[in-house]
Amino acid sequence: MDDEQKVDDEQMDWKQKVEGLNSELGIVESSTSQMDDEQPKVSVKTLEKGFLINVLLEKNRPGMLVSILEAFEDLGLDVLDARVSCEDTFQLQAVGSGDSHKDDSINEQVVKQAVLQAIKNTDDE
Predict the structure, then answer these.
(1) β partners of residue 54
(2) Is the distance from CB of 84 to CB of 91 less than 8 angstroms?
(3) Which residue has the higher pLDDT, 69 or 86?
(4) What is the pLDDT of residue 17?
(5) Which domain of life is it from (predicted)?
(6) Where are the beta strands (DSSP E) in 18-117?
(7) What are the φ and ψ backbone dihedral angles of 45, each rounded to 5 degrees?
């Protein structure tokens, strides 16, 4: 085998290794971005009396709406107004208000954690 042939073989070897690594990285990148898409986006803002709650998930799951509404109930929040879409993605915008006694102990973070837990519960089922 001459020197040119050896160089060509080595280049092909390296090219295959690089393509293999790129392929592996592509798999890792796509699974990471897929995981990011599946992460729920939950925001809670305090209103004069109650909270504005926004939930967005790229994929709807069975029981999601019921689980979130049960979390509101557990916190003593009544849903005063809501818009929900749960065909492919899950989107919820709700205004929740509760008893004046309980409002002092409930803040944005408590509501957000309750909603995230409700979403997690639908994963476990």
Answers:
(1) 43, 93
(2) yes
(3) 69
(4) 66
(5) Eukaryota
(6) 41-47, 50-57, 77-85, 90-98
(7) -125, 140
